[in-house]
Amino acid sequence: MNATMIQTTGLTRHFTVKKDVVEAVRGLDLHVAEGELVALLGPNGAGKSTTLRMLTTLIPPTSGTASVAGYDVIAQQRDVRRVIGYIGQGNGAAHAQRGRDELVSQGRAYGLTGRDAKARADELVASLDLAAVADRPVSSLSGGQKRRLDIAMGLIHAPQLLFLDEPSTGLDPQNRANLQEHILKLRAEHGTTIVLTTHYLDEADAMAERVIVIDHGTVIADDTPARLKAEHAGDLITLGFGSASDAGAAAARLSSLSGATVSAGGATVEVRVAGGPRLVPGILRDLDAAGIAVESTAVNRPTLDDVFLNLTGRSLREGVVTPSSEEIAA
Amino acid sequence: MSSTTMITDTVTVFSRELRPVLRDPFSVVFSMIQPLVFLGLFAPLLPDVEGGSALQWFVPGIVVMSCLFSTAFTGSNLLFEIQTGAHERMLVTPLRRPALIVGRALKEIVPMIVQTAIIVLVCVPFGFDLHVLGVLLGVAILAVMAVGLGALSYTLALASKDTEWLFWTVQQTVLFPVLLLAGILLPVDDGPGWLRALSAANPLTYVVDAERALFNGEFPASTVLSAVVAAVVVAVLGLAVGTRAMRRSS
Questions:
Q1: Which of A177, B130, B162, B236 has the smallest C-beta neighbourhood within 10 Å, fewest atoms?
Q2: Nearest chain A Cα distance for residue B221, angstroms
């Protein structure tokens, strides 16, 4: 087992908003080992960013303890800051600055010499494909270019632990894919421990080996995406029929299937069940033998949204407030 | 990776702040438009004073005004960085919190010197008598004042984190009374008692008085000393509240 990178015990943070106490994070117990890539998944307001802001020393916890890379987030703030990289929701580079200048300042902030900071800035400019824009004012960069610059700034000191808060929000699908590729490459090359927050299910699904589902400030599930889906949501088998009466008859027969949830609507029957692909041939034979003609079939693997729906009774997508470009494009 | 100190941190913050100014020196001139307008449109209305041009009295005030405007405005840069996320990124680095305010405030000295040089050089052909030693000492006092005013502006920006209008409202509300009460545009000596009392409570008044003497080649000890004390008080106060605000910043 790898060394502990993050350990929190009863981590809690309250905010007072107009005399009302909002419990953003409630008694979070978290353990992340060195080298893990963990996604904190949850709707807006679930407490993901607040958790990250406590772990990165930006705000103190109301109660509870947290240690990051062996340092206490309250008593050893500067030690924590030295070893972590943080890419927040905003843009790290100031609009009035030029990208390369900001990279050098960032390097100096971590104690690199002027020469080392310049060399490291050049290296990151090249590896994040920023050569064409690094010497322009940051305000003139596109969203994707600014985000790549943010990543470069977060990596200037080759941190052993990198936090990313909603890294791909506001990016188009191509830039999102590009960003994910950079993050995965970083991990493959340097073994960096990565903790990211996201409300994009596919992102958590595609990148993280471990997904921590957070809702109302507490962890409600913590496992690999595959196991979360297997445990908390089945496959969805959709059967199409020639008529509603056929569908009704089929639904009646299928209700005897163990562990399945069957719902009929119009000429369609939906069956939510584990191990869907292997059950379909049997279902088709059974319906055929009963004289019910199936016109179409589809099997959908569960998504993390199904997991969230199953755990909370709400869809994660309802929590998405920002109409970002990728949803319009999707 | 070498270790950092309060001094290297301050240098890092100072250099970062200064870089956009060096990249685009014209930005310093843009912030001077208002003082230059006053110089061009207000100074000609003033009657000549005994022994020389009205500029001799007016120019030091405009130098202080130029410094006041640009330092009061400077917090808006931080406010913008708070809104875009650049400030948060700085807070996550190991930079010491006092360095984040001291480095920024020290940078205010540079545009102040450039602005003073421009104003003085523009006025010399129009009859302004240049006394180099006095101007240099005047600039040194103003440098201390600029650090304090800059720190106060940054503090206001930090306090306005979630309410941008607060910055501009407070800044504009405070700026003009401070300007007028310091006797920059018109002398307050002949004003009513309450106004003179307010003027006496304004640290900038002492700085303006000293600048007028120094720019005229005079070195009255008590006037200069009062100005030094006023500037130091503002600087210490500004950096103290600024450091406190920066430590609480998130």
A1: B162
A2: 42
